[in-house]
Automatic annotation (TrEMBL):
<feature type="binding site">
    <location>
        <position position="107"/>
    </location>
    <ligand>
        <name>Fe cation</name>
    </ligand>
</feature>
<dbReference type="InterPro" id="IPR017860">
    <property type="entry name" value="Peptidase_M22_CS"/>
</dbReference>
<feature type="binding site">
    <location>
        <position position="175"/>
    </location>
    <ligand>
        <name>substrate</name>
    </ligand>
</feature>
<feature type="binding site">
    <location>
        <position position="179"/>
    </location>
    <ligand>
        <name>substrate</name>
    </ligand>
</feature>
<dbReference type="InterPro" id="IPR022450">
    <property type="entry name" value="TsaD"/>
</dbReference>
<protein>
    <recommendedName>
        <fullName>tRNA N6-adenosine threonylcarbamoyltransferase</fullName>
        <ecNumber>2.3.1.234</ecNumber>
    </recommendedName>
</protein>
<dbReference type="GO" id="GO:0005506">
    <property type="term" value="F:iron ion binding"/>
</dbReference>
<feature type="binding site">
    <location>
        <begin position="129"/>
        <end position="133"/>
    </location>
    <ligand>
        <name>substrate</name>
    </ligand>
</feature>
<feature type="binding site">
    <location>
        <position position="270"/>
    </location>
    <ligand>
        <name>substrate</name>
    </ligand>
</feature>
<keyword id="KW-0819">tRNA processing</keyword>
<dbReference type="InterPro" id="IPR017861">
    <property type="entry name" value="KAE1/TsaD"/>
</dbReference>
<keyword id="KW-0808">Transferase</keyword>
<feature type="binding site">
    <location>
        <position position="162"/>
    </location>
    <ligand>
        <name>substrate</name>
    </ligand>
</feature>
<dbReference type="Pfam" id="PF00814">
    <property type="entry name" value="TsaD"/>
</dbReference>
<dbReference type="GO" id="GO:0061711">
    <property type="term" value="F:tRNA N(6)-L-threonylcarbamoyladenine synthase activity"/>
</dbReference>
<dbReference type="InterPro" id="IPR000905">
    <property type="entry name" value="Gcp-like_dom"/>
</dbReference>
<keyword id="KW-0012">Acyltransferase</keyword>
Length: 329
């Protein structure tokens, strides 16, 4: 079995994954959403201190598996360095104390592996990664060969939901709340412009800061917002935010075939986005792969699944050599 730890942002999570059949034997996650909500976003120092309290608590619950462990895995990049350090320190201590090899796992590869929990991997795979920190379109030949097809030039997809939510006075993280409001709203009421439409046809990139500013101007123009207007802003914003993703995805695959398409990351829980991706995949005769809702946002189960692959490749790292990196190599 592998014990895996995730602390790259504001979720403390530990999982135990069985090597032979990838079964998830234990998985617990403690989210810090409530603690950060009052600040309108994640406060790294506070997040690190909370990990220092919650990670050991979860670890105690996984103690009965210690004697059967074969390796310790931990997210070491990318993420907030002060929070990554909490998980990495714990992993190193466990590795030394239990005399077990150590695996450093890339958080983004972890998100890709959220599609394969308790299942076999499936490659080649094209992936849309939409989280609070990333908006990436990837061609994944395998976990060691990943080509970045497009990324964001400024805010990420999930971050734009959080920022619009903040402007509307909604608590952090606002993604799921905006989706809920959007269901009751008129998505055509506000005619926000889809970002990067007029740019050179060769540019494959995402941008969300302009859309966020359009929403800001709309909110300012309204003064006091009634409930229906908030719902209409959410619906109109979500429609355009997703339309931007879809426009660029369609452009990326205009002359490219795709057989398997996955969507991962916290914002991949958005059902409106999933619906649009379903339609795109149907048009390309591709299969859409989604993670179970509980594995969309940050969690150690996906890190453990990725670690099973790393374990079989002997990708172990010495305790002294495992470094924390805020961005990917
Ligand atoms: O993957 P994740 O848990 O953390 C990062 O690695 O960033 O993603 C969190 C992000 C937040 O920005 C949150 O607002 C967004 O995912 N999110 C959503 C939805 N659920 C979570 N965005 C849009 N619609 C949702 N239903
Ligand atoms: Zn993440």
């Amino acid at each position: 079995m592998i014990l895996s730890i995730e602390s790259s942002c504001d979720d403390s999570s530990i999982a135990i994954t069985r090597l032979k059949d990838k079964k998830l034997l234990f998985h617990k996650k403690i989210s810090q959403d409530a603690e950060h909500a009052q600040y309108g976003g994640v406060v790294p120092e506070l997040a690190a201190r909370l990990h220092a309290v919650t990670l050991p608590k979860i670890l105690e619950e996984a103690k009965s598996y210690f004697s059967q462990l074969k390796a310790i895995a931990v997210t070491n990049e990318p993420g907030l360095s002060v929070t990554l350090v909490e998980g990495v320190s714990m992993a190193k201590a466990l590795s030394v104390a239990l005399n077990l090899p150590l695996l450093g796992i890339n958080h983004l590869k972890g998100h890709i592996c959220s599609l394969f929990i308790e299942a076999e991997t499936l490659f080649p795979l094209d992936v849309l990664l939409v989280s609070g920190g990333h908006t990436q379109l990837l061609h994944v030949t395998n976990l060691d060969e990943i080509k970045l097809l497009a990324t964001t030039m400024d805010d990420s997809f999930g971050e734009s939901f959080d920022k619009v939510g903040k402007m509307l006075g909604l608590p952090y993280p606002a993604g799921a709340i905006i989706e809920r409001y959007a269901k009751k709203g008129n998505a055509k009421r506000f005619d926000f412009t889809i970002p990067l439409q007029g740019t050179s046809s060769s540019l494959l990139a995402f941008s969300y800061s302009g859309l966020k500013n359009q929403v800001r101007l709309c909110i300012e123009a309204h003064g006091n917002l009634d409930e229906q207007t908030i719902c209409d802003i959410c619906a109109s914003f979500q429609r355009v935010a997703v339309a931007h993703l879809m426009q660029k995805i369609k452009k990326a695959y205009k002359e490219r075939s795709v057989e398997h398409f996955g969507v991962v990351g916290g914002a991949s829980a958005n059902l409106y986005l999933r619906g649009e991706l379903e339609a795109f995949c149907a048009s390309k005769k591709a299969k859409l792969h989604t993670a179970k809702m509980e594995f969309c946002s940050d969690n150690a189960a996906m890190i453990g699944r990725c670690a099973v692959e790393a374990y079989h490749k002997d990708a172990f790292v010495a305790v002294a050599d495992l470094k924390v990196r805020s961005s990917s190599k």
